[in-house]
């Protein structure tokens, strides 16, 4: 895609999985890449992979839940490449799995801080830089099919991914006048290690039970999830799909068309609920009121 050549992309959670897959795809299309990740050992390996592919790369350690580190990342990006044109908010964790009454507050804070506030901090640090040069650009937020359908026993993950979908829809209208294209990537199962997110859990989110061996039921669920992920889509395919969707100016980027019937069922239920509300005499006064056009 010629439009990407010579421009700069910043990717959080870029040391492996989807982040690295997208980095490789963007690099093949001529972009400079800033890889950011909390796992510095993995980050060094990813940097070498891109360098071996003759991709211009800057690797920066980043805790996506820390707004100060995002600002430092933005500064280093400008120092190295001069401008930034694309932000992929990809850093994410899966935590707080299990029945809702058993989810610990620290897990809620961890997942919200990384999956949701990390997206906000990334945008606040880098969108001003994209606006500054006036050449337009892209922001791609990584959500999940869980953000559209809901994943049982994964309340924090589902809540944050649904929030990222909503944020992306809001930012699309807000940033369009600045020539900044907004997309939200909602993948199904991809061959990543998000199910092993605990390996990168920051110390201040740790709880006593984190050091305990998992219960038998949780262990069986973990084995099942691992088998599903192992059969998932390759991150490299997701990377090229993202480039394809950027070219088509897609708001929603889907990687698993087999989820379509489930999403259609959800929207059919929403539409039916609207139809029922139309027949309620309690709501007759608002039936014909015009709503604002938010673009």
Describe the model:
The chain has nine helices and seven strands; from the N terminus they run βαβαβαβαβααβααβα. The chain is of the alpha/beta class. Helix 1 crosses helix 8, helix 3 packs parallel to helix 4 and helix 4 runs parallel beside helix 6.
Task: Record keyword descriptors for this entry.
seven-stranded parallel β-sheet, alpha/beta, Rossmann fold, 295 residues, 7 strands, 48% helix, 9 helices
Sheet with most strands: strand arrangement: 3-2-1-4-5-6-7
**Overall mean pLDDT:** 93
Based on Cα principal axes, name the global outline: globular
Using the coordinates above, name the CATH class. Alpha Beta
User: How many helices?
Assistant: 9
Which SSEs are present, and which pair or pack?
Blueprint: E1 8-12, H1 17-28, E2 32-37, H2 40-52, E3 57-61, H3 67-81, E4 86-89, H4 105-133, E5 137-142, H5 146-149, H6 155-175, E6 180-186, H7 216-230, H8 235-247, E7 252-254, H9 260-278
Parallel strand pairs: 1-2, 1-4, 2-3, 4-5, 5-6, 6-7
């Amino acid at each position: 895609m010629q439009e990407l050549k010579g421009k700069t992309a910043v990717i959080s959670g870029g040391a492996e999985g989807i982040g690295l897959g997208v980095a490789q795809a963007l690099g093949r299309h001529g972009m400079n890449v800033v890889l950011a990740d909390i796992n510095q050992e993995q980050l060094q390996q990813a940097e070498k992979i891109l360098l071996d592919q003759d991709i211009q790369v800057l690797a920066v350690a980043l805790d996506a839940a820390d707004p100060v580190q995002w600002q430092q990342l933005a500064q280093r990006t400008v120092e190295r490449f001069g401008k930034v044109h694309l932000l992929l908010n990809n850093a994410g964790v899966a935590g707080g799995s299990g029945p809702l009454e058993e989810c610990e507050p620290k897990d809620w804070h961890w997942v919200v801080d990384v999956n949701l506030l990390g997206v906000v901090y990334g945008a606040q640090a880098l969108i001003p830089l994209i606006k500054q040069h006036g050449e337009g650009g892209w922001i791609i937020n990584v959500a999940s099919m869980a953000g559209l359908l809901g994943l049982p026993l994964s309340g924090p993950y589902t809540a944050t991914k649904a929030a990222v979908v909503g944020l992306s829809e809001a930012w699309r209208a807000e940033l369009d006048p600045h020539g900044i294209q907004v997309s939200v990537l909602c993948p199904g199962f991809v061959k990543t290690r998000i199910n092993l997110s605990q390996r990168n859990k920051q110390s201040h989110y740790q709880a006593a039970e984190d050091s305990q061996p998992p219960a038998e039921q949780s262990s069986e669920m973990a084995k099942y999830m691992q088998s599903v992920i192992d059969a998932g889509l390759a991150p490299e395919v997701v990377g090229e799909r993202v480039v394809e969707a950027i070219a088509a100016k897609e708001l929603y980027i889907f990687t698993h068309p087999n989820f379509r019937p489930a999403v259609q069922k959800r929207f059919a239920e929403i539409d039916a609920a609207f139809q029922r509300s139309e027949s309620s005499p309690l709501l007759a006064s608002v039936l014909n009121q015009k709503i604002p056009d938010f673009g």
